[in-house]
Amino acid sequence: MKKFNLFKEIIVVAKSDFLRAVNSAKQFAIAYDGTIVFEPFPPELISIYEGTITPSSPLSTNLARPLGTMLGDSYRIVEDEDRILIKASGAWQNIIGYNHKRALYDDTSGDGIAEFADKNLEAIGWHATEFNIGYRDIVDQFEAQCDGVLLCIEQEEPYQFSGLGFVTDLQQAQQLAFEYCAEAVKEKLANDEDFATLTKDEEEAAEFFKAR
Q1: Does a cis peptide bond (omega within 30 degrees of 0) precede residue 66?
Q2: How confident is the model at residue 129, as a pLDDT?
Q3: 20 to 30 A Cα–Cα from 180, which one of 18, 54, 138, 200?
Q4: Which residues are CB-neighbours of 22 under 8 A, at least 6 positions away?
Q5: Which pLDDT tens digit goes with each residue over 126-156?
Q6: Shortest CA distance to 150 belongs to which of 135, 138, 139?
Q7: pTM for this one?
Q8: Where are the alpha helices (DSSP H) in the chain?
Q9: CA distances, 22 to each of 30, 35, 81, 113, 169 (Å)
Q10: What is the DSSP string of 133-185?
């Protein structure tokens, strides 16, 4: 997966596309790659802004509303000839709200990842916890081996991380998660004394992963 760290990345948008969207008075989104998208938004959209911008009133004393103020105070905008350059890290809480419903997993809280949005992956994750395999363990496999985007804010000193994960091929992620967990469960059954005798829930999980 590609890490798109909003602390470091600059979103580049064609000025003409942006102004066309503003003047349309329609609901639109700016994708993380700088593309302008109008409603209805596709399920694969990863946005850094969603909304409708009201153009300046014709009765305003200003001849033109400053382009740099149109997205609000949370965004930093620089005009560069026919482009606008956007720094969006300050709008992270809004960006979480825009994308949470489309993300496969949410790692934006200090509590870690609680669930997967996909029901098949959630079943895998839920059964895996019986063998002390966490959601983060599974997500590490996605981030290392799957195509997709990890939209995040991350800084090193002091360390801070908050992210939303999106995979391109959900079926691949399901297969990868199942195979990883099945192998881990088999290893624990063979070598971990804590699982020499299984509870009912552990038995069910072992059967789910075809490990017995």
Answers
A1: no
A2: 97
A3: 200
A4: 53, 55, 70
A5: 999 999 999 999 999 999 999 999 999 999 8
A6: 139
A7: 0.90
A8: 15-24, 92-99, 119-128, 135-145, 170-191, 200-208
A9: 11, 14, 18, 36, 33
A10: --HHHHHHHHHHHS-EEEEEEEETTTTEEEEEEEES-HHHHHHHHHHHHHHHH
Q: Which residue has the tokens 């600059």?
A: 10
Q: Burial code of 47-67, b = ≥16 C-beta within 10 A, e = fewer? A: bbbbeebeeeeeeeeeeeeee
Identify which of 114, 111, 105 has the alpha carbon closest to the alpha carbon of residue 139. 105
CA 182 to CA 179: how far, in whole Å? 5
Question: Which pairing describes strands 47-51 and 28-31: parallel, antiparallel, or unpaired?
Answer: antiparallel
User: What pLDDT does residue 64 have?
Assistant: 59
Query: Hey, what amino acid is at 166?
Result: F
- Measured CA to CA, the distance from residue 17 to residue 33 in angstroms comes to 13
The answer to whether the beta carbons of residues 84 and 67 sit under 8 Å apart is yes
Region 67-90: what's the mean pLDDT?
A: 92
